[in-house]
Amino acid sequence: MQNFRRVFVFFLSLFFFSLTTQVFAATSPDPTEQLKPVIDKVVSLLKDANFRKRPIVDQSEVIVKIVSERFDFREMSKRVMGKQWRTLKPEQQDQFVGLFTKLLQYVYINQVDDYLDKKIEFTGQRIKRDRAEVKTLLVAQDKSIPVSYIMLLEKDSWMAYDIAVEGVSLIRNYMEQINTVLRDEKFTGLISMLEKKITKLEAGEKDE
């Protein structure tokens, strides 16, 4: 599985930003404002030297629990699987959601130190009924990377289920890769691949 950089940029954008003025619909909650409490919690943790000394497994579990308040990993997993999702038994769906979520959390925690000096700027948002796009820029000294969150309104909560980095959808990218593995190696092959990558990332190794 490739393009781990896009996964990391997603998480980084979620965790570190300064809120800008937004125009939003008065009849629904504001997606950007709903992200802020989550971001505050994670920023506080990442500034805690004692927390950063904890085992990577512990750090990852704490962070993903916080992020889950505003990111629907099950919806993301369902969309990544596409039509194949309906062919899976409930227990297989749960297994994939668990492994895919764990993969993303380890990708983030293994690369966070490389991006702590970046700044996040929110540039606007669009809301259309129960869908929203929150636009941001990940600003470095020599480059600005556009990052957009795609969110779904679930009751009174905006939940992110996709991220577009430089115009490339994370969902679409993973969908292509996962469907290729499913076609060639079936579901058992996909699970085996995910487990191997997770084991590698748990050991602190970076994947590509």
Automatic annotation (TrEMBL):
Ranges in a coiled coil: none
Recorded superkingdom: Bacteria
Signal peptide: 1-25
Keywords: Signal
Gene3D superfamilies: Tgt2/MlaC
Protein name as it appears in the record: Phospholipid transport system substrate-binding protein
